[in-house]
Write a structure and sequence with these properties.
It is a single chain. With 95 residues, the protein is mainly α. The protein has a single domain, classed as 434 Repressor (Amino-terminal Domain) (Orthogonal Bundle), CATH 1.10.260. The chain has 6 helices and 2 strands.
Length: 95
């Protein structure tokens, strides 16, 4: 799955259908979101289809832009590993 590959160690991901709904409800175009996230509209489209996941920084920009966060999904497993061990799940210790 492309989303997991592109965002393996991120705690935050998005639900593409809910992201689309949030964007449309806020009356923003793909280009509006792309401008706010400093990317191109094809990337935003890929976030909405689930082909790609935005960085955590861009997710937070969209939360601010839309004034809502119902499209954000927390990767609880990754959060647990980062909180407990201070590193990503399966990350090497550098030995």
């Amino acid at each position: 799955m492309a989303e997991a590959y592109h965002n393996k160690n991120n705690v935050l991901t998005v639900d593409g259908a809910k992201l689309t709904h949030a964007r449309v409800r806020a009356n923003y175009s793909l280009q509006d979101v792309a401008d706010a996230c400093e990317c191109n509209k094809s990337q935003v489209s890929r976030w909405e289809t689930g082909d790609l996941n935005p960085s955590q920084e861009r997710i937070l920009k969209m939360v601010e832009l839309f004034g809502r966060h119902d499209f954000v999904v927390v990767n609880a497993t990754e959060w647990y590993w980062q909180e407990k061990f201070g590193k990503a799940e399966g990350a090497e210790d550098g030995r």
